[in-house]
Amino acid sequence: CVLRRLGRLSSPEWIRLVLGVVGMVVSSAGNLMVPTIVGCIIDRVTGVSRHHRSRLTRWAVAIPKEKFIASCLSIYSISASASILRLYSLNSARDAMARRLRSSVFGAILAQPIGYFDQKEHAPANLQTVISDDVDAASGVIAKDCVSALRGANSLFGGTYMLFSISPQLTLLATGVIPIVAAGSMACWKKIAKVREAVRKAHEVAIARAMDSIQQVSTVKCYGAESQEATNFELELETGVLPGLQRRFAALEGLLFGGLSFGVN
Q1: Model pTM greater than 0.85?
Q2: Which residues contact 154 (CB under 8 A, 6 or more apart)?
Q3: Which are the contacts of 228, defined by CB distance < 8 A and separation ≥ 6?
Q4: Tens digit of pLDDT for each residue in 180-202?
Q5: Most Cβ neighbours (<10 Å): which of 94, 181, 201, 238?
Q6: Contact (CB, 8 A) for 59 and 107
Q7: Over the chain (265 residues), what is each successive 10-residue block's mean pLDDT?
Q8: What own/partner pairs with CB < 8 Å and gap ≥ 24 does 11-19 have?
Q9: What's the CA gap between 187 and 185, in Å, rounded?
Q10: Distance (Å, rounded) from C-alpha 75 to C-alpha 96?
Q11: Residue 244's pLDDT is what?
């Protein structure tokens, strides 16, 4: 049901979405050719002969220098143009879907009976969030999230093919390491999620205490305790539970991405 709704929402923008996907595939292909081009440049400069060259690599090494440079510039230009097409088309599709959905949501809100607006969850501030943030998130699912997943899959399979063409043995070894790295990353990510939730709750507690002082501002001012309340809030933010949780979160996140970098390399 949700997928059908997303399909109906994005169907008027199918041309832009197709252009964006085509641009993504072409730009990813250009990025994947960078190692091959660098290898050809090294072969041309050093003059080293490699018997396991592919037909394309042998052709790139054998052609005149001017033609090789022109070919490289053409590949980079096509890849850059495809990247521009991808970003422009997908962003245009996302913005068009957001405008259409925002107009539809606004019309649906106005069509509700008057009692609908008396409920606390339908206060103007909450409805503003629906019209603004929720609409942007919904419109970005197709134009951003789904296409990003497709781009990741394209880079994964394309990169794997390129690696197999260079060295099947090393590719199989690297592929065998991926499950180990993924399992460790998942475990670390779950720990990070728990610490992030603890940080969020600590923030809420600190802000709730500050809001209590603001709600009772007349009492605070009556006793001249403005400076004391501000000092207490600052001490809670600087020396309470929150700083330790934030440092722990930063350390875990650093370990995660550092470990990923080590494992991938």
Answers
A1: no
A2: 24, 25, 28
A3: none
A4: 777 777 888 888 888 888 888 88
A5: 94
A6: no
A7: 67 83 83 74 67 63 80 85 86 81 81 79 75 75 70 72 68 70 78 85 79 75 77 74 79 75 61
A8: 12/96, 12/100, 13/92, 13/93, 13/96, 13/97, 13/143, 16/89, 16/90, 16/92, 16/93, 16/96, 17/89, 17/90, 17/93, 17/142, 17/143, 17/147, 19/85, 19/89
A9: 5
A10: 31
A11: 81
Token digits for 31?
């990025």
- Structure tokens that stand for 166 in this block: 């260079």
Amino acid identity, position 153: A
Label residue 173 exposed, middle or buried (CB < 10 Å: 0-12, 13-18, 19+). Answer: exposed
Distance of CA 1 to the CA centre of its chain: 26
Token pair recorded at residue 24:
């993504």
Contacts 24+ apart (CB under 8 A), 117-121: none
